[in-house]
Amino acid sequence: MAALLRRVADSIAELGEVEVQDIAFHSELDDEGDSWPSMTVYFHPSRGPLR
Questions:
Q1: Domain of life, per the record (predicted)?
Q2: What domain range is 23 assigned to?
Q3: 16's torsion region: left (phi>0), alpha (psi -120 to 50) or beta?
Q4: Total domains, the chain
Q5: For labelling alongside 4, which of 23, 27, 39, 48 has CA 20 to 30 A away?
């Protein structure tokens, strides 16, 4: 889980100034029945200074 959170944070940082509206966490089962976590980030370009 920690690696996923780091990757999401790094990806958001690479986008530059954006406003994150929501982050959704999902956990699905892979073909072997193991949990496969993922996250979806909803964002748009920032319209001003970061808060």
A1: Bacteria
A2: 2-45
A3: left
A4: 1
A5: 48
Q: Is residue 51 part of a domain?
A: no
pTM given for the model: 0.74
Beta bridge partners, 26, equal 38
pLDDT digit string, tens, across residues 4-48: 999 999 999 999 999 999 999 999 999 999 999 999 999 999 886
Burial (Cβ within 10 Å: 0-12, 13-18, ≥19) of residue 11: exposed
Residue 14 — left, alpha, or beta (φ > 0 → left; ψ -120 to 50 → alpha)? alpha
